[in-house]
Amino acid sequence: MATLKVPASVPSPAEDSEQLHKAFSGWGTNEALIIQILAHRNASQRKLIQETYAATYGEDLLKALDKELSSDFERAVLLWTPVPAERDAFLANEATKMLTANKFVIMEIACTRSSHDLFLVRQAYHARYKKSLEEDIAHHTTGDFRKLLVPLVSAFRYEGDEVNITLAKSEAKHLHEKISEKCCSDDEIIRILTTRSKAQLNATLNHYNNQFGNAINKDLKADPKDEYLALLRATIKCLTYPEKYFAKTLRLAINKLGTDEWALTRVVTTRAEVDMDRIKEEYQRRNSIPLDRAIAGDTSGDYEKILLALIGHGDC
Prior knowledge:
Layout: H1 13-24, H2 31-38, H3 43-57, H4 61-68, H5 71-80, H6 84-96, H7 103-112, H8 115-129, H9 133-140, H10 143-154, H11 165-180, H12 187-195, H13 198-212, H14 216-219, H15 227-240, H16 242-255, H17 261-271, H18 276-287, H19 291-296, H20 301-310
């Protein structure tokens, strides 16, 4: 296995582990030191820190953090620190539980990870919960939601750029016919959305727009209170324009009467290493305020500091 090349300016996993252990020792926890270390390490570096910490101190780093931290800051640190597949497995499992059920979180994970990354999530889920992700989602959902979500999390899409234009035209026509007939849980619609590559889907939806004069999501707004249609629209947005979806999710989380910290934490921790720059651009374009300023105006303390560090505006 290739050894991770850590830049000279970054301390070794052993040094980071020692500093984290010091942060937990003595009177009170040194939250600033935890942010200084963990918020400025990439996924590979955090994995090495976890392994080194366990080998050196005989304790799981996440358990140590769990004991020392609390509230929204704790959740942000505990979501950020694990490798992405383990984080996603945890979020997906939480989203199937009665008190924290959230079909949109499952859809987000299924639609915005690469096929390989989604495969790793399914593996991590199986290892941690001794069940398959598909099995749990099938057990905790019903009807049209189950019909859409199970194949979405099972998907292994082609990741290339090749597109079949003839297919795009015929599938755009089929989508339009079924949506016009209000058959939005039609097997073919679900098959197209859950099996086609993202490049192919983009071609199909462009043809849909050109041929029928409306973006598909506009046609799917026939009944704004229909939760299945809302999930279907979000699925399409996540597959074709994820930064737009996440910018809107952040806006809704921040602009609520009382911040939706769970949504804010989830988006920041899952996208910080993926497409946060594009999300920030989209957020500012749509809301005329930089994301860091919006977060700073709506959060405080160590929770604010770690979020700002993760989106790239913290002090390194």
